[in-house]
Protein: UDP-glucose 6-dehydrogenase
Organism: Lentibacillus halodurans
Amino acid sequence: MNIAVIGTGYVGLVTGVCLAEIGNQVTCIDIDHEKIAILKEGKSPIYEKGLTDLMQKNIEKENLHFTTDYNEGLADNQLIYIAVGTPQGEDGSADLTFIDKASESIAAALKQDAIIVTKSTVPVGTNEYIKEKIQSALSENITIQIASNPEFLRQGSAVYDTFNGDRIIIGSDDQSALDVLEEVNADFHLPIVKTDLRSAEMIKYASNAFLATKLSFINEMANLCERLGANIDNVSNGMGMDKRIGSSFLNAGIGYGGSCFPKDTRAVISVGKDVGYDMPLLENVIGVNERQKVILVDKVMERFQEIKGKKVAVLGLAFKPNTDDMREAPSIFVTESLLDKGAAVHAYDPVATENAKQILSDKITYAANVKEALDGADIALILTEWNEIREIPLSDYKKYMNHPVIFDGRNCFDLDERIGNDVEYHSIGRPV
Ligand code: UGA
């Protein structure tokens, strides 16, 4: 099929590349000339495992094209995916500016009937708004249908998730649009759920809100475990074996970050407010997460009382491993709080350093490797569980630091690994 994908952020680009990989003719459109120039050269502007190889392969096969020109991008395409960002607005609601712009550009350039498919995460009712906005601006002989096809990709494993996800959701109030999308998606060989437009939009928000709830719940249990002498790893393991609970997303840590959970939980609350419905559960999910993001600093202060002038090594800056994304990363809040208290922060991240510099500028020192960060440090904080960081043996902390005191925000080490290593080790929800 001939497909256009609007927006080449991580959702749009991964969608476009993977649709090309299963045999479609895909044109990705973006208004950012610089980005399109980079993409045309077969280079990916984002760090996403496996994406560059797949992109280059499909450019060579002439399945995948890039343009900044809507007229060129939409010509002959019956399927048009919208995958632009829906960032958080000032009041917590989703900002639909890019959706508006994409809709206006589609309306101005579309010359044939088409199905518009929204990939972007949008409040319930937005797809009807998009349809109305585009249709009312088109000439009478062109008809569009609208469908919602939310994505459930995790950054860092987005390509893998596209081919190995748990389900594909397609929502539309047009049966023929559902049928076309079912056929297009059949080649991913995943379970397909066909539903109505509004339910599809809601499935996305409800899924992210539920996962965020699961994380705040387990983090709250971890904090309680610490006070009661229990071990959250053992508790999660025992809980997760109950199929009704499930074992994934039960790793306690320093809270969720990234571009999705923080924004989507706030957007759900905002949508609730619009219809006069309070959501105290989700409000508290967010509150618990805010507290969790700086919990390591509380632990440091409890242990040291004063950290002025101390060298603190921060290992990991990205909001999670395998991504260079720093959006709402707990590391931002942790380092800022450490700096406020007068500490000298030396941070290392395998790939997120450049993005971190945009946010934390020269307030901290960026180490070129783990050794440089740890060298002579008084305190070490583990904030992102990159394999490279997980694999540092405790003996290395002993080798490089003065008197190693480690605060592990991701429970990277088994408690038994402390035996024989002369280090002080604090983690989340486990005995010291
Ligand atoms: C999340 C969802 O998992 C995807 O299904 C969804 O498509 C995406 O948002 C989106 O809406 O675009 P993502 O934000 O990339 O994906 O990352 P996750 O792997 O879900 O991790 C989110 C946060 O939870 C990270 O900060 C991570 O460190 C934290 N986390 C995750 C934990 O603290 N413990 C866990 O057990 C799992």
Summary: The pocket of uridine-5'-diphosphate-glucuronic acid is lined by residues 121, 151-155, 208, 211, 215, 249-251, 253, 256-258, 260-261, 319-320 (CB under 6 Å). DSSP finds 18 helices and 14 strands in the chain. The chain has a mean pLDDT of 96. The longest strand covers residues 2-6.
